[in-house]
Amino acid sequence: MSIWAPLTPEEWQAARLSLQVASVAALVSAPFAVAAAYALSRPAFFGKTVLDALIHAPLVLPPVVIGYLLLLTFGVKGAVGGWLYETFGVRFIFNWTGAALAAGVVSFPLQVRAIRLAMEAVDPRVVAAAESLGAGPVDRFFTIVLPLALPGVAAGVITGFAAGLGEFGAVITFASNIPGETRTLPLAIYTSLQTPGGEAAAARLAALSIALAIGGLAVAEVVARRLRARLA
Length: 232
Known about the structure:
It is a single chain. The chain has helices at about 10-40, 50-55, 65-75, 80-90, 95-120, 125-130, 135-150, 150-165, 170-175, 185-195, 200-230. By secondary structure, the protein is mostly helical. The termini are far apart.
């Protein structure tokens, strides 16, 4: 099959699954990323260095290691996964939700970093003025810090989405490579390369992955600029 041939139903399925996995991963992890970024943007506190290292560990750990740790924690025999499966029948392993969990964990530090930088850029004098007027910590966060950091939040979420589209190692280790269930675009490319005569299909899927990733980053920049313009 030619590189210029239309995508097959299986290839479209992998593309749709990638978009689904990346979207869920970015949106579900966003509130946790906001909380983590806010904690790290505060003045030094006991354990901040350790917390910072744990949050950013996925950036330096091999993705396969992350997938293995997820397997130990959220597998059906894991500490958390076993309880979820026995109590609620929820299973992450060999499921698209497991792929979303793996993609969310790997892209989480990227979200935190973008949001943290935006929160650290908030003028502390504005926060201090609100405090002097009687605004409590929760009020200051939701009425001042979060609105002013919104461009960074949006950029972080979209960057996390783009990173989730390309996650491979953690997904295949934790969720496996099941057609129609966990086979996202990176896994479909890998499968095509392992199939005789699959080079053209791999090239088509790689081109689609590149387009989606670049498009996601471009959208993040546009959204951040527009939000900054509104707040100016």
